[in-house]
Amino acid sequence: MSGAVEAKLAELGLTLPAVVPPLAAYQPAVRSGAYVYTSGQLPMVDGKLPVTGKVGAEVTAEEAKELAATCALNALAAVKSVAGDLDRIKRVVKVVGFVASAADFTGQPAVLNGASELLGAVLGDKGVHARSAVGVAVLPLDAPVEVEIQVELQD
């Protein structure tokens, strides 16, 4: 049975995906005390990247914003894998996003709004968080965006 958070996802036309399997030697999410830390989540859909390349070159900022939302959805799936129920989220504490950027691209914060806005739409006030948006030269599998989240749980 899905809870209120998954009902909100459904209301938004979204489905929580299966957890994306790790690409190397790590876990998708780890719990420490009341906190869950996710590994960086790529915008995988059905096991593959829908788009590759640098934002500001092969990928538009608007496409990348949508990909960042997909990353956040994948991060929620990773949180559920260790928390058991997304309704246990007390709040999203921090979001860190990486944007594979063309040399002159400076719109990383707008790209990461895709993740932040998704978390806000799904979790309401519990989705408000601190955030870093970082431009990088390249990401795994030539992904345009990668997002990790940290959440605090309640019992």
Structure in words:
- This protein has helices at 4-11, 61-83, 108-123, and strands at residues 29-32, 35-38, 89-100, 130-136, 145-153.
- Helix 2 (61-83) crosses helix 3.
- The chain contains three helices and five strands, in the order αββαβαββ.
- It is an alpha+beta fold and 155 residues long.
- It is globular, with a radius of gyration of 15 Å.
- 39% of the residues are buried.
- The protein has a five-stranded mixed beta sheet with strand order 1-2-5-3-4, covered by helices on one side.
- Helices cover 30% and strands 23% of the residues.
- The longest helix has 23 residues, at 61-83.
- The model has no long low-confidence stretch (mean pLDDT 96).
- The two termini are 18 Å apart.
- What's the end-to-end separation, in Å? 18 Å
Q: Regions with pLDDT < 50 over 5+ consecutive residues?
A: none
Strand content: 15-25%
What class do helices, strands and sheet pairing give?
alpha+beta
Described by strand count, sense and barrel closure, the largest sheet is: 5 strands, mixed
State the gist of this model.
The chain is of the alpha+beta class and 155 residues long. The protein has helices at residues 4-11, 61-83, 108-123, and strands at residues 29-32, 35-38, 89-100, 130-136, 145-153.
SSE inventory with pairings:
Blueprint: H1 4-11, E1 29-32, E2 35-38, H2 61-83, E3 89-100, H3 108-123, E4 130-136, E5 145-153
Parallel strand pairs: 3-4
Antiparallel strand pairs: 1-2, 2-5, 3-5
Helix pairs in contact: 2-3
